Amino acid sequence: MTTTGVAAAPSRRRASAGPRRRRRREAALGYLLVLPAVAAFAIFVFYPFFNNFRLALYQTPPVPGLPSRYVGLHQAGHVLFSNAYGFPGSLLTTIVFVVLVVPVSLLIGLGLAVAAHRRLRGIGVYRMIFSSTVVSSVAVAALVFGTLMNPVVGFLPWLGINPTPPLLQNPTWALPAVAVMTIWQFLGLSFIIMSAGLQSLPDEILEAARIDGASAWTRFWRITVPMLSPTIFFALVVGTIYAFQSFGQIDILIPFRNLPANLHVNVLIYNVVNTLTQENNTGVAAVMSIALFVLTLLVTLLQMRFLESRVHYGR
Amino acid sequence: MAQVIFDGVTKRYGDVVAVDDLSLSIVDGELLVLLGPSGCGKTTALRIVAGLEELSAGTISIGDAVVNDIDPKDRDVAMVFQSYALYPHLTVARNIDFPLRQRGIERDERARMVNEVATMLGLDPYLERKPAQLSGGQRQRVALARAIVRSPQVFLMDEPLSNLDAALRVQTRADIVSLQDRLGTTTLYVTHDQVEAMTMGDRIAVLNHGVLQQVAPPQELYALPANVFVAGFLGSPGMNLVPGRLDRSAGGATVAVSGGTVEVHTRVHLPADPDAAVTVGVRPEGLFVDPHGAVGATVTIVEMLGAEAHVICTLADGTRLVVRQESTVPRPAIGEAIKIRIDPDAVTLFDTAGGKRLEERE
Ligand SMILES: Nc1ncnc2c1ncn2[C@@H]1O[C@H](COP(=O)(O)OP(=O)(O)O)[C@@H](O)[C@H]1O
Ligand SMILES: [Mg+2]
Q1: pLDDT tens-digit profile of B192-211?
Q2: Within a domain: residue A6?
Q3: Does ipTM exceed 0.85?
Q4: Which amino acid residue places its CA nearest to atom 3 of ligand 1?
Q5: Are A224 and A201 in contact (CB under 8 A)?
Q6: Of the four listed, A116, A246, B55, B190, which is most buried by Cβ atoms within 10 Å?
């Protein structure tokens, strides 16, 4: 026993030098392989991200061609705390939009996931249909919904849902209409996240609850939802970020050119793009996009901080 | 309390027949153990009683009522799952309370019942903990408490001890038996462990490939196994089974096996065919290493277990035999060629074709 131990020790030490060199070589190869991705990120994400902070400190000249003027935080204060660029209104609209979109899409996603979480013949088809909105592009979805809501040829007007002014130009209904489309779009992802969560719940716990006498309603609210809370929480964070960044559908459904002032669809990101492309005001657009970033970050952190403490992660 | 009756119960999953035409009654107040190897359909049978599986054929009754179409929550049975299936987000107290709450029992009454059961199972110090903060044995007791608290008509237990360590298993085994005895609740207890079955069951039902093999009290099952499967499955190690051919040439009866002959009593119904294929079954305690023995074998392993030793040897055709010896008896060496004597009184004969035991004559 002892002799073999002594004999084995030096050979083990000798053997370990090789793997260490090999490991270093492997690491070098690893860095080499991630380099293209890092470069792409650096050019298209990191550089613009940090440059944004610089842009926010300069005032864009009223006439193109003149040099930008350094104004420090003055411009930021002006944008954020006055109504000059519609920031407070945009902020409110964004919050309303998030509140319209997120809870509803989470609830429907969860409902569909529970409905599809059964061993029934042909259930796979339903699962595919429910999750399909993930793979449909925002542009196509917006066109489809735009057509559905079209006051002349649309399906909704045909059903009698045809306010004046038409849905997408109606101060009351434009934002909810866009929210409905966004809910539809996010539903696929919400469904997939919830389904994945349900798959990971042990069937036996729900069966135990059935035997213990719990009704379907009780099982859902007292067992499924609490046990799914990490999943629901994750979907909440993802959904909030998704809603904050919704732009394509608003842009397609309600183009800038027929945007009446009282049509409250001017969410932050819409405002940013508008400021940038219609008014060419890079400085102001930079300030607002940083505000959107900070807002997203804050909301995510807040959700983590307050909700996570109530989330159940146990087995 | 109530009896449970399986009548021609079959459960198929696609092509797999998990439970095959099972007819079995569990008497009111009895602890019946459902025993069989992994995958033989024990869990499925239990889930059928609970109402978690629909039947492919047959009827299942609890008390006097056929419950085929009754929802699990209305069957008044309690189940202890192999995984315990505790509610991970609820405290121990709330876990035990859960079934009571579903019955709309008043709050003070519930608290009293939870405390009573918790005390009975020694769970008082843990009532405010979550299941993740408990040891395996404590979780197991919470699962028991949750089943007991509602005084159901029937307990269903699916290998409740399989996740415990050996010492705790022996202890808990005794606890469950005395608890069941005290409560007198009809219990269907599933296990793959024949020692557990032998020590706990009023009766044991042996299942293999979904087919019921035999139902009997433990001692009868051990002494008079209905077929080679039951014979080999019960006992640790199980009964030795040696294929051979009947030889009635010398007036009496012997069985020619690989490496020798085995004398058998002729009080069983021997097959009409004078040289029928039969299987000789002998428990390890019916075999002796003896120079005057009639069967030759080679020792492959000798296992020392403290009070006793197992001499494992093979016959010329590769059949494995286990001889149980007192540890005081000298043990042969590995590789040694030995002779084995077989106690004729310990021999059980099986019909090789059907595997059934040859019955004694009246
Ligand atoms: N939900 C199911 N779908 C398909 N086959 C199943 C299912 N449940 C059990 N089986 C099969 O039925 C047989 C019996 O399973 P089970 O009752 O769990 O056995 P045991 O509890 O005795 O180990 C096994 O062959 C198993 O693979
Ligand atoms: Mg099982």
Answers
A1: 999 999 999 999 999 999 99
A2: no
A3: yes
A4: B13
A5: yes
A6: B190
